């Protein structure tokens, strides 16, 4: 087992609906080649601590891989030599000396251990040499899963293996044809003095299998500097294969990855693209109790690459592009520790072919929880995000990224500082693109819940009252525009919704009033304008909505940013301007009138102006 905990360091482009450009953050709807553009994506932040969306900075997600001298494989550790396989006991030949698992279907048992045969058994009946306690696949070696231990009764064919000590993959761990999953579990060691770990520096792959998935559960830490690949394969004559996903659960420690985590859908050569991962799950501190290491447990530290792309459709038959991120989402959770991320995320929808639509991008969620058994954690996230919808006859929808930070046990607090939710710090987010996709007959609408930042008054269970909500700083440029329409008589997409609120549920206000800590400071450009439709007889899209402290309560609101909610331009009819509402509950809102715009779009008939109000007084038009 790895005895020394790894401690990581901590520090602190405009596209309208193209569906293909990835700036700092891009979740645009895909383009519609002969129909409607896709709906724009969603950027949502909810916190019991402060929120900072900053244009500069980056998270330091560096860490050191453990030394080989720290590995502990137990009494009967096994090292793979050359090319070996794990097979069923019922499939062995006479004199077999290799690795095997029990055929629980034939034997009617529930034995998920890994065994080494001694070479004296008969065909279909090996004699056990020992039960394997730890496993290593060294560099240059390959271990192939050629067995189904019958953990599942149908649809999943592979091995679930329980071990007590470390699992180290420096070479290749793979499934053979006909098998689709790998699940290694040494988490039962979590109560031991030295819980076991999982280390990957090589490659773990399901070899393109349909609905392939990989799972590692560790008693302590999971480290990855290699490649975990559960992608579906391409299919030159039909639909691409789907991916089921990747699951990394560190029970009392943390997950550290600087390699590749990949669960893409396969491309369809003459059919639809495969779905990206049904789920990518990465959890630190899975046990969620006092067994979790109070200093270095409960964290998720990520750099490198995380992919769950939808496959592209192709061929004369064609079809729809695959969904990026699959039918579900990527889920990253730190229970009591840190979320420190500086990675490249690609969860875009696949492109359609022929009469097919573009695939939707799906969702990635980040959760960080304060816990009563350890220090306050850190939540620092940077990198690049591509959750664009795929292009097709109709564009796919842009994806969603959510960030959550909560106090211990549903907003409780122990009174000693432990359990406090960390601030959410989103670093280097200079441009956040959430536009509707461009279309022919109509531009895609921006999302009705596109750019939302909310802090809540956390409940203090120790003293039985609500604490004041924390402040919000928003520097990012957020583009939440409707997509453009190119065809005659087309319609521009509707602009989206941007909302920044402290004490969103009014809990502290209803109990005590407004706290001076409840402040909104906004400096970036926010544009929720409607899309254009300038071809003959086109109608511009309506502008959207921008709220700063509209329904929550805050002490002060300051905006130096340019806030735009214009109607889109149309050849025939301009779009209606949108709505801007700025409010401050104690001090006067600080703003510049020249920075606000709610004009109607141009056209043979111009669109009507929208309205802008500050502290309940209309200032535009």
Describe it for me?
- By secondary structure, the protein is mostly beta strands.
- It has a domain at 77-165.
- It has three helices and 47 strands.
- Mean pLDDT is 91; it is low at 1-23 and 410-416.
List the helices and strands and how they pair.
Layout: E1 25-26, E2 42-47, E3 51-53, E4 77-79, E5 83-88, E6 99-101, H1 104-107, E7 115-117, E8 128-131, E9 134-137, E10 142-145, E11 158-162, E12 167-169, E13 172-175, E14 181-185, E15 198-200, E16 203-205, E17 212-218, E18 222-224, E19 227-229, E20 243-250, E21 255-257, E22 260-262, E23 279-284, E24 300-302, E25 305-307, E26 324-335, E27 339-346, E28 361-369, E29 379-386, E30 400-406, H2 408-411, E31 424-426, E32 431-433, E33 451-455, E34 459-460, E35 465-466, E36 472-474, E37 477-479, E38 497-501, H3 507-511, E39 519-522, E40 526-527, E41 545-548, E42 556-559, E43 563-564, E44 579-582, E45 596-597, E46 611-614, E47 617-620
Parallel strand pairs: 1-29, 1-32, 2-30, 2-33, 3-31, 3-36, 4-9, 5-6, 5-10, 9-12, 10-13, 11-14, 12-15, 13-16, 14-17, 15-18, 16-19, 17-20, 18-21, 19-22, 20-23, 21-24, 22-25, 23-26, 24-27, 25-27, 26-28, 27-29, 28-30, 29-31, 32-37, 33-38, 36-39, 37-40, 38-41, 39-42, 40-43, 41-44, 43-45, 44-46
Antiparallel strand pairs: 6-7, 7-8, 34-35, 46-47
């Amino acid at each position: 087992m790895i005895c020394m905990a790894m401690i990581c360091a901590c520090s602190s482009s405009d596209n309208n609906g193209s569906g293909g450009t990835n700036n700092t953050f891009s979740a645009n709807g895909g383009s519609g080649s002969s129909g409607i553009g896709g709906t724009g994506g969603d950027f949502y932040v909810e916190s019991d601590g402060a929120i900072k969306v900053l244009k500069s900075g980056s998270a330091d997600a560096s860490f050191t891989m453990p030394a080989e001298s720290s590995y502990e494989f137990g009494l009967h550790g096994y090292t793979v030599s050359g090319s070996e396989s794990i097979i069923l006991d019922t499939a062995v030949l006479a004199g077999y000396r290799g690795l095997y698992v029990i055929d629980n279907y034939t034997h009617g048992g529930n034995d998920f251990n890994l065994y080494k045969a001694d070479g004296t058994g008969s065909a279909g009946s090996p004699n056990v040499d020992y039960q394997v306690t730890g496993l290593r696949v060294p560099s240059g070696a390959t271990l192939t899963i050629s067995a189904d231990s019958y953990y599942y009764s149908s649809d999943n064919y592979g091995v679930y293996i329980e071990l007590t000590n470390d699992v180290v993959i420096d070479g290749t761990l793979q499934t053979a044809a006909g098998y689709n999953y790998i699940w290694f579990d040494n988490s039962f060691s979590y109560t031991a003095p030295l819980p076991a770990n999982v280390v990957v520096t090589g490659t773990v792959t399901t070899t393109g299998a349909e609905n392939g998935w990989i799972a590692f559960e560790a008693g302590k830490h999971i480290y990855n500097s290699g490649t975990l690949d559960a992608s579906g394969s391409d299919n030159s004559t039909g639909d691409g294969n789907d991916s089921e996903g990747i699951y990394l659960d560190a029970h009392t420690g943390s997950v550290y990855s600087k390699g590749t985590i990949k669960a893409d859908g396969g491309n369809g050569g003459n059919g639809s693209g495969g779905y990206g991962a049904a789920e990518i799950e990465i959890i630190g501190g899975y046990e969620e109790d006092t067994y979790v290491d109070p200093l270095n447990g409960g964290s998720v530290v990520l750099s490198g690459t995380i992919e769950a792309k939808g496959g592209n459709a192709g061929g004369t038959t064609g079809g729809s592009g695959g969904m990026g991120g699959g039918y579900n989402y990527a889920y990253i959770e730190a229970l009591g520790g840190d979320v420190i991320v500086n990675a490249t995320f690609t969860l875009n929808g696949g492109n359609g072919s022929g009469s097919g639509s573009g695939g939707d991008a799906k969702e990635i969620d980040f959760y960080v929880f304060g816990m009563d058994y350890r220090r306050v954690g850190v939540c620092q996230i940077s990198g690049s995000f591509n959750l664009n919808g795929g292009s097709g006859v109709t564009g796919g929808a842009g994806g969603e990224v959510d960030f959550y930070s909560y106090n211990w046990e549903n907003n409780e607090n122990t009174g000693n500082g432990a359990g406090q939710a960390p601030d959410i710090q989103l670093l280097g987010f200079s441009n956040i693109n959430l536009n509707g996709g461009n279309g022919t007959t109509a531009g895609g609408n921006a999302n009705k819940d596109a750019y939302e930042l909310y802090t809540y008054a956390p409940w203090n269970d120790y003293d039985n009252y609500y604490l004041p909500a924390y402040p919000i700083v928003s520097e990012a440029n957020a583009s939440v525009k409707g997509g453009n329409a190119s065809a005659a008589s087309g319609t521009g997409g509707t602009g989206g919704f941007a909302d920044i609120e402290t004490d969103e549920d009014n809990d502290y206000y209803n109990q005590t009033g407004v706290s001076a800590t409840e402040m909104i400071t906004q400096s970036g450009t926010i544009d929720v304008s409607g899309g254009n439709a300038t071809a003959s007889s086109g109608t511009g899209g309506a502008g959207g909505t921008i709220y700063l402290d509209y329904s929550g309560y805050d002490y002060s609101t300051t905006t130096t940013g340019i806030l735009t909610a214009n109607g889109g331009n149309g050849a025939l009819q301009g779009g209606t301007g949108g709505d801007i509402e700025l409010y401050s509950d104690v001090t006067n809102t600080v703003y510049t009138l020249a920075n606000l715009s709610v004009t109607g779009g141009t056209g043979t008939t111009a669109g009507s102006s929208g309205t802008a109000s500050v502290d309940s007084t209309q200032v535009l038009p």
